[in-house]
Amino acid sequence: TVSMLIDCDPGIDDALALALAAGSEALDLRGITTVGGNVGLDLTTANALALRDFLDLGDVPIVPGCSGALVRGPMDAAHVHGAGGLGDAVLPPAVRAIADGHAVDFIISTLRDNPGEITLVATGPLTNIALAVRKEPRIVTWVRDFVIMGGSYTRGNHNPAAEFNILTDPEAAAITFNAGWTTTQVGLDVTLTARVTTRVLDRMRDLGRLSSLILPSVQYYAPITAESGPALHDAVAVAHVIDPTLLTLTPAEVRVETAGHYTTGMTVTDFNSPTPNTQVATHLDVDRFWDLMITSYGRLAGR
Ligand code: BDR
Ligand code: CA
């Protein structure tokens, strides 16, 4: 099993990534830290708390972090994820509270106490990660693997150049890519190839209690047809941690544009660089990704 710490901003696809983690036998979830992103920090934290109970995640600590970007003004994606962040899904209110402390310190201490053991996954803006790198640069040597959902080498989604997680805090993303570790980057190039089509949705219908999270959130996220539907970006990053054979990774040097007129937040990717700092996801085995998702959801639903 792989020990994972996830920094996230739930968020529909963050929630469905947590559900994947909860249903997997291969993952040991060591903590959830939250960041402002899709919706404000209060809501991403409240959603994480509600999800911990709903997904039977036991007593995994939930620690809130930064509410906004290092330098820039607020940005959110409530127009995509709904005002509360989970579309039309309504979860029972959380029973238990957040853990003491700040996400940045929790990330540092978890990595320090378990050198070489923890895979750190970030599925929101990189604010907490950047501050952790600045506060304790040795985390880059303690981490087992660092995986993000963010960026792209071909396109943006929030605008033509930039993906939402990078654009929300480009300075934090720049610090993170420049930190001296190898980032595994799961970007839009691969996440947009796995869509919840009507065929996939049909496989998700028979999931008991879990359906009250999955169906109203996914159906809110984007229109679902035979050919297209929402992409569950963040779930692809967690799927990679569970099964590293799903993605093809290609080394490249990735730098984040922070001073562009049209291109701020772009992840500028050089596949020919002699000094790569990133393993960039360039292909996803879509069929096996959905098999993993449906199997894990089924396992969770059958509990
Ligand atoms: C990313 O942005 C957020 O809206 C999603 O949760 C995902 O992490 C996709 O661009
Ligand atoms: Ca997210």
TrEMBL record:
Pfam families reported for this sequence: IU_nuc_hydro
Lineage of source species: Bacteria, Bacillati, Actinomycetota, Actinomycetes, Streptosporangiales
Alphabetically ordered keywords of this record: Glycosidase, Hydrolase
GO cellular component terms attached to this protein's record: cytosol
Enzyme Commission designation: 3.2.2.1
Protein name: Purine nucleosidase
Organism for this UniProt entry: Nonomuraea endophytica
Keyword Hydrolase in record: yes
Residue ranges of domain Inosine/uridine-preferring nucleoside hydrolase in the record: 5-291
UniProt-recorded Gene Ontology molecular function terms: purine nucleosidase activity
Keyword Hydrolase: yes
GO biological process: purine nucleoside catabolic process
